[in-house]
Amino acid sequence: MPRPARVSADRILDAAALEFSERGFAGARVDRIARRARVNKAMLYYHFSSKQGLYRVLLRRTFTLAAERIRAIAASPASPADKIDKIIAGFAAFIRERDFFPAIMLREVAEGGSRLDRETLLTLVAVPAAVAQIVQEGVARGTFRPINPLFAHLTMIAPIVFYLAAGSFLGEVGALLTHLQPLAADDFVHHMQDVMRRALAHDASPRQTS
Amino acid sequence: MPRPARVSADRILDAAALEFSERGFAGARVDRIARRARVNKAMLYYHFSSKQGLYRVLLRRTFTLAAERIRAIAASPASPADKIDKIIAGFAAFIRERDFFPAIMLREVAEGGSRLDRETLLTLVAVPAAVAQIVQEGVARGTFRPINPLFAHLTMIAPIVFYLAAGSFLGEVGALLTHLQPLAADDFVHHMQDVMRRALAHDASPRQTS
DNA sequence: GTCTATACTTCGATAGAC
DNA sequence: GTCTATCGAAGTATAGAC
Question: Which residue minimizes Cα–C1' distance to D15?
């Protein structure tokens, strides 16, 4: 029984994810991707139109999966507060299943998304849209204070991406700074859930003056 | 009176900041940097040892200035809460004086700081160290709740970098999502100050159960 | 300090056999 | 579907005159 036909294409995508996340699009080398996938360059070009094309397929696939997962949470029957909790945990979990994701996302943000085609871009916008909808629902119900939904989205997503992108590097920094045990990712997720609960709660923190 | 000698070197650094922020180290082109600085390539190599060398000088200069500004705030006589406020505002102001900064920082994080030399890395670590010290002081005084200082640092810095890196791109996303007026950077700074005040405040947000 | 011309290398992509 | 060999463009860096 022969191996399934798409095996090598999948291996190429996996290798590309690694290479692009480590070096960025411009720094990635097609030769290295091929070698890592244990195919030769011609094979790569047989499956994918170009370096750009390979990159686009990878991003589209990944961002679509991420958006789906977030949308599923947003569509579930739960309180806005619970949904925010779950989105934070779900997003972190999604990343930890694919550690190539945060570095690529960071670089895309750095580039203003200029390398994303329109379709992928629209898919990706579904994530902040879902978060915004939840926030607005919470505000409408009176369980959240009034807050700019896009601000809320950035506040919860950015630290997670940073934290998980930094990975071992952050561990070194942390070792220089704290005497705490190695920073566990789960702890950070809980921290961010806590932060967002407080950020969205109807006023509880006392103002000093007036 | 002849022009000062370092004029062209400074122009090269300015051009390099732009080019590196738009394209990353690997995507940056020495020819383009030279053209943007209105010098020729040979001139660039007369002032700087290599593309790498130019990049390092740029980063060292920028990160040193950033660390100095944060340290000055940390050393000032103010309450921990005020210092956090000022660091958020000061960091955002620093970035807005150099819009090349966030994209470069994002890419460095994506790469795990592998392109920074040891000296620059140590300089940069001074920033989270300063924040951590303030947080710990607040915790010791009992004005902040116990919190991992490195978590606190990430929570406040990452969204600012994201927000200011995304710039116009975020504007488009925002236009698709909200009917609010264009997101002003000042509003976002206030938002993050608010978030951190709440995140650090001694418990005010009510827990649902138990 | 400044410029032109060019050496040398790397890299994306393809041709063409099997 | 898979491989070897190679082309041609682009890119970093330098030589050497002024």
Answer: B42
Measured CA distances, B109 to A28, A80, B91 (Å): 17, 32, 17
Q: Which residue among B27, B174, B198 sits closest to A198, beta carbon to beta carbon?
A: B198
Residue type, B104: I
| Closest C-alpha to A135, from A77, A74, A91, A72 | A74
Q: How many residues does chain B have?
A: 210
Residue pLDDT, tens place only, B133-143: 999 999 999 99
pTM recorded for the entire structure: 0.93
Nearest CB neighbour to A166, from listed B112, B176, B206:
B112
C6 C1' to A105 CA distance, Å: 40
Which of A25, A110, A150 has its CB closest to that of B183?
Answer: A150
Residues 6+ apart with CB under 8 A from B90: B69, B70, B73
Q: Examine the domain organization and report whether A140 and A167 are in the same domain.
A: yes
Task: Give residue B19's domain range.
Answer: 1-48
CATH number at residue A169: 1.10.357.10
User: Which nucleotide is closest, CA of B27 to its C1'?
Assistant: D11
Do B132 and B169 fall into the same domain? yes
How many domains would you assign to chain B?
2
* Interchain CB distance below 8 Å, A159 and B161: no
Between residues B114 and A167, the one the model is more confident about: B114
Whole-number pLDDT of residue B180: 56
CATH code, A37: 1.10.10.60
Whether residue A207 is contained in a domain is answered as: no
SS3 A202: coil
- Chain-chain contact of A155 with B199 (C-beta, under 8 angstroms): no
Same domain, A176 and A112: yes
- Does the CA dihedral B131-B111-B101-B154 come out positive or negative? negative
A2 and A97 inside one domain:
no
Contact call for residues A50 and A23 (beta carbons, < 8 A): no
Which H or E run contains A155?
helix A149-177
Q: What is the pLDDT of residues A3-50, one digit of tens each?
A: 555 679 999 999 999 999 999 999 999 999 999 999 999 999 999 999
In a domain, B207, yes or no: no
C-alpha B80: how far from chain center: 21
Closest nt to residue A47, judged CA to C1':
D1
Q: How far is it, in rounded angstroms, from Cα A208 to Cα B143? A: 12
